[in-house]
Amino acid sequence: MKKILIALLSTILLCQFNLLTAEQNPEETSNDNFTFIPIAPDEDIDGELITTEKGIQKFFWDKENIKAEGPVKNRMKDGDWKIYFAGTEGKAIKAQGNYLRNERNGQWILYHENGRVLSKQTFKKDMLNGTYYEFSETGVPVTEIVYSNDIINGVFKQYYDDGIPKEISMYSKGKKNGAENLFYPNGKRISIGPYKNGLRDGLWKFYYNSGKQKSLGHYKNGKKTGNWKIYDENGKLADTEQY
User: Which of 142, 198, 201, 217 has the fewest CB within 10 Å, making it most exposed?
Assistant: First the structure.
């Protein structure tokens, strides 16, 4: 539960960060160092002692409430497992997925208490591989991230509660590489520009929440460089700055 709360908190903090970015100067504020925390599907049974040599192993919240169950071979989780919400007597699945010799392998699905899907994840040798998904309690997509061996490597997408894109960026080996697109809650673009090895690098454009151009200029290794153009809220050139 603690890891789930941390993951949900990270999503909320990112949302608040982007809103703050929209209200302040997005040129001076970035989420370069933001770390996304995926939800661990089997945290509730992490550290549980396996007592069965071969057969079905069960763990319990208490005497009457089963926590999880699944097959075991050579005292290792091996096969399809189910984890249940506390206090439901095994009637409400919290997570389900496959183990191979005690390592998560294949797809894992987590659920909200209302039965809707919370997250879909794919593992290979106990590491995230492929597209990681998160959904709200109403089924709206919240997060879509491509992983390779537990490292973000590909498209990174996050959405506001109503499904409007919040961020669409490209990652390579855990660092932003390629275009980053940030959006206001109204769907208008906040900014667009390229990253190189985790730093802003190249031509960047920033916008007011009306959609009008706010500023544009170049970054080099994360710092502004050259001539920058500043526009007023009507889209007219108001100033220039030299870096």
Answer: 198
pLDDT for the residue numbered 22: 42
Give the per-residue pLDDT at 35. 82
pLDDT at position 25? 62
pLDDT at site 15: 46
CB 156 within 8 A of CB 170: yes
SS3 for the chain is: CHHHHHHHHHHHHHHHHHHHHHHCCCCCCCCCCCCCCCCCCCHHHCCCCCCCCEEEEEEEEECCEEEEEEEEECCEECEEEEEECCCCCCCCEEEEEEEECCEEEEEEEEECCCCCEEEEEEEECCEECEEEEEECCCCCEEEEEEEECCEEEEEEEEECCCCCEEEEEEEECCEEEEEEEEECCCCCEEEEEEEECCEECEEEEEECCCCCEEEEEEEECCEEEEEEEEECCCCCEEEEEEC
Residues 123-151: tens digit of each pLDDT: 999 999 999 999 999 999 999 999 999 99
- Rounded to 5 degrees, φ, ψ at 181 are -120, 120
Taking 50 as the pLDDT cut, the residues of the chain under it are 2-23
> What pLDDT, on the 0 to 100 scale, is given for residue 7?
47
d(CA 107, CA 97): 6
Give yes or no for a contact between 193 and 205, defined as CB atoms under 8 angstroms apart: yes
Buried b (16+ CB within 10 A) or exposed e, 83-106: bbbeeeebeebbbbbbbbeeebbe
What pLDDT shows up at residue 23?
46
